[in-house]
């Protein structure tokens, strides 16, 4: 996901999206450990998306102060 798309979402939607991505990441790590993961780059992509969401949430929090 692009940061521009994430900035359009509300805080609740961002938190839900973060939870979904964390769940996906957990499942992918499990598959990777078992040797069943076909695309290891998916792990990196999801980690970056989670970081983007956390950054945007932090920016929003700072802006409200």
UniProtKB/TrEMBL annotation:
One of its GO terms (molecular function) is structural constituent of ribosome. One of its GO terms (biological process) is translation. The keyword Transferase does not apply. Keywords: Ribonucleoprotein, Ribosomal protein. One of its GO terms (cellular component) is cytosolic large ribosomal subunit. Transmembrane segments: none annotated. The keyword S-adenosyl-L-methionine does not apply. Pfam families: Ribosomal_L29. Belongs to the universal ribosomal protein uL29 family. This is Large ribosomal subunit protein uL29.
